[in-house]
Design goal:
Number of domains: 2
Mean pLDDT: 95
Family: Belongs to the metallo-dependent hydrolases superfamily. NagA family.
Protein name: Amidohydrolase family protein
Bound molecules: zinc ion
Radius of gyration: 20 Å
CATH class of the largest domain: Alpha Beta
InterPro entries: Amidohydro-rel (IPR006680), GlcNAc_6-P_deAcase (IPR003764), Metal_Hydrolase (IPR032466)
CATH architecture of the largest domain: Alpha-Beta Barrel
Low-confidence stretches: none
Helix content: 25-40%
Keywords: Carbohydrate metabolism, Hydrolase, Metal-binding
Shape: globular
Pfam families: Amidohydro_1 (PF01979)
Distance between the termini: 25 Å
Strand order of the largest sheet: 5-8-9-10-11-12-13-14
């Protein structure tokens, strides 16, 4: 027996009334309907977060005796509408990165929910800038030049799960490393860099296609021009991810990035395990001693200017864009769903007959607040509020 679900709501694209029938894990019918629908309920694709360090108290960058406890991240993210995510492993020793990868492989093998929700692994580092500022909260001792043999080992250990890497093109061998990644179908993103404009262009020529959390992982002060921010902003072949949590980027910067990048701007959460946790002082793998302020700002305890990942989820990122009038609901939703999907699958189209049924029904409340009413993953209802 297969589950049959019928969902209706206003389309995330244009607000037109939409009814979807779901069977066998797929959308089996798409109907425009005439009957009146609640004015505040919107239907669209589940969110995809390509940068998740951790969530709800669990951390992909920590080793657990009970590996399956990491499955809580997938379950908690489903409750906030994130139906696909990329566990993100940051700079560490080669052995520890191997261990963290194998942990995710085990998780995916033994936990169907995690297997369904984890769309790939994002390796952020260790091939980034060693310099204070661009390096952000990544531990300097493990930063190194790109090493293909090492990366290939991680790819093999991940059994195909590694699909994305963030690196700095400031290393001499970056272009050849990027070419090898592209050959293997790995998405290369530029981040945590002090690369020269020429190095940025060489990286793009070699196949880099994205900037990771553009505007963060930078020096506090840079030369007015040229610099690595202008060169990435001006490069039309680079999409860009941003962290829209209200702390990483001021609204006017997001507005300008949006003008520069157009439909190539997308959202990531960069959430750490402290996303969804109470304010206070914590000890974390990323950067060690971390403070989560009552406002939700996550920074190094020793330096409140130095952000250490975010404490939000993608849905809150959409809320922030709406609240600051930086995007419409439709646009912000695309930034957190179809656009990240299309980095890996250019033909991705979430609302059509035969599409995998990863869907959410959202209620838009006063003050631009959003609430997930239902989450459908692989055609099954996995969350309902
Ligand atoms: Zn980062």
């Amino acid at each position: 027996m297969e589950d049959r679900i019928v969902l209706s709501g206003k389309s995330f694209l244009d607000g037109s009334p939409l009814k979807l029938r779901i069977g066998g894990g797929l959308i089996s019918r798409v109907e425009k309907i005439a009957e009146p629908l609640p004015d505040d309920q919107f239907l669209g694709p589940g969110l995809m977060d390509i940068q998740v360090n951790g969530y709800g108290g669990w951390d992909y960058n920590a080793v657990y005796d009970e590996v399956l406890s990491l499955g809580q991240i997938s379950r908690k993210l489903l409750q906030v509408g994130v139906t696909s995510h990329f566990p993100t492993i940051i700079t560490n020793s080669p052995e520890q990165i191997s261990r963290l990868i194998r942990q995710i492989v085990t998780l995916c093998r033994e936990d169907k929910v995690a297997r369904d929700c984890i769309a790939g692994i994002h390796i952020e580092g260790p091939f980034i800038s060693p310099e204070d500022g661009p390096r952000g909260a990544h531990p300097r001792e493990f930063v190194q030049a790109p090493d293909w043999d090492l990366f290939e080992r991680w790819m093999v250990e991940s059994q195909g799960l590694v699909r994305m890497v963030t690196l700095s093109p400031e290393w001499d061998n970056s272009p050849s490393f990027i070419e090898k990644c592209v050959e293997k179908g790995i998405l290369v993103s530029i981040g945590h860099t002090k690369a020269s404009p020429a190095q940025v262009i060489a990286a793009v020529a070699a196949g880099a296609r994205l900037s990771t959390h553009l505007g963060n992982g930078m020096h506090g002060q840079i030369a007015r021009h040229p610099n690595y921010l202008w060169s990435q902003l001006a490069e039309d072949r680079l999409a860009a991810s941003i962290i829209a949590d209200g702390f990483h980027l001021p609204p006017e910067v997001i507005r300008v990035f949006k003008r520069a990048k157009g439909e190539q701007l997308l959202l990531v959460s960069d959430s750490t395990s402290l996303a969804g946790m109470p304010a206070g002082d914590y000890e974390l793998h990323i950067g060690g001693q971390i403070t989560l302020s009552p406002e939700g700002k996550l920074h190094l305890r020793s330096n409140p200017q130095m952000l250490a990942g975010s404490a939000m989820n993608l849905l809150q990122g959409i809320e922030f864009l709406l609240e600051k009038e930086l995007a419409t609901l439709s646009e912000a939703w695309k930034m957190a769903s179809t656009r990240p999907h299309r980095l890996f699958d250019p033909m991705f189209d979430p609302i059509k007959v035969g599409a995998k049924a990863d869907l959410i029904l959202i209620q838009k409340g006063p003050n631009q607040s959003l609430k997930v009413l239902k989450t459908i993953k692989n055609g099954k209802e996995v969350f309902s509020s």
